[in-house]
Write the C-alpha cells for this entry.
Amino acid sequence: MSSITSSLSNLLSSLLNTLNSILATIYSTVETAFATASSLLASIIDLFSSAVGFIFGNIIIIGLLVAAFVGYSAYQQNQGRNKKGSLKTS
C-alpha cells in the first residue's frame, strides 16, 4: 500500500512540475515578446529623435537650399516674360 501511495504522489508531483514548466515557458515567451516590442518602440523613438536633431542642427543650410530652389523656380518662370507680364513675341 505504501508503494502505491508513493507512486501516486510521485505521479502527481511529476504532473504538477510539468504544468509548472509549461506555464513558466508561456510566461517567458510573453515577457520576451513585450520586451522585444518595447525595445523596438524605443529604437523607433530614438531614430525619430536623431532625425529631428539632424534637421534642427542643419536648419540654416536646409532653409538656404529651399530659398535657392524657390528663387530659381521664380527666375525660370519669369525668364520668358517682359515687364508687362506678356510673352515675348520675338
Remarks:
- The CA atoms of residues 14 and 20 lie 10 Å apart.
- The radius of gyration is 36 Å.
